[in-house]
Amino acid sequence: MTKSKITATIFIGMFLLNLCSCATSVKERETLNMPAKKYDLVLVHGLSNMHCWGEDFLLQSINLWGPKHVFAVYTTESGSIWERDIHGKPLICCGEDNYSAGDDNIATQSGYLNDAIVELQTSCGLSSQFSIIAHSMGGLVSRHYIAHHPGNVIGLVTLGTPHHGDPLADSFGWIGFFIGAGDAVDNLSPDYLTEFNQQFPIPDASEPDNCKIYTIRGDSDGYDSFGWGGELFWGWPIMRIFYWTDSDGIVPEESSVIEGAMHIGDFSGDDHYDLVRDPAVVIKAAEYLP
């Protein structure tokens, strides 16, 4: 077998392993003995929307919150509202579901999120108060939104969010320029997030009117992770060799948690991409969101 065929076989194998890594089945709310939700759910994606919400993740969300009570926001300038069919159940969406979503800096994306929330509340019946599940950079965008719109968000669960930044943003920031997300990547550097956390600290959970923030963290072993385009396959060894830290393939393990937020789960079998595809992640988040 030639070297090129060996390389192709390895990458195909990694891709197939990645597809099959989330084995948890989707469950009905009644099966889980979980009470009906009081507040609607908003989903906020991460950088450039490359790690898209998986269908099982979305179906599990709809099963727990109910049809017409789950809303996916794509942080683009467009405020178009459309409906996506998830195994016969509606997911209400706002914005453009493409790779331009999530390309802007945190403040700009937070503004797009606010515009989408207003439109969804006006046109689609999104509750005045709601919960958010946010992936990666989406957690930072959501924290910015919460700080500027106190009282709107009841609870936020962040999935693999780099609360303290990501050293890859410094080492490989030039990639952001080529994918059109330079401003977003700049906002993921550890130096920037140090200032961000000082300006937007985690709300005091003991205050009854404050948003409760929770964190969930994944973990990659490197050899069984691929991602959207191989970024996890290369990200994990770079983190391990050059930064001496474990990670989910993209975000260092210590950056996915932050003082003041309750850490509610470590998913050792889920890399950064798996966190938006594994129904068990939704179930864990739902245990804490009212």
What is the number of helices?
A: 10
Residues in β-strands, percent: 15-25%
Named CATH topology = Rossmann fold
Query: Which regions are unreliable across 5 or more consecutive residues at pLDDT < 50?
Result: 1-22
What is the CATH top level name? Answer: Alpha Beta
Helix content range of the residues, please?
25-40%
- Number-wise, the strands total 8
Q: Would you tell me the structural class of the helices and strands? A: alpha/beta
Mean pLDDT: 88
Topology pattern, helix = H, strand = E: HEHEEEHEHEHHHHEHEH
Structure overview:
It is a single chain. By secondary structure, this protein is α/β, with parallel strands linked by helices. It has one domain: Rossmann fold (3-Layer(aba) Sandwich). The chain has helices spanning 3-20, 55-65, 106-123, 137-148, 167-171, 173-178, 182-186, 190-199, 231-243, 279-286, and strands spanning 40-44, 70-73, 81-86, 89-94, 130-135, 153-159, 212-218, 262-267. Helix 3 crosses helix 4 (137-148). The chain is globular, with a radius of gyration of 18 Å. The model is unreliable at 1-22 (pLDDT under 50).
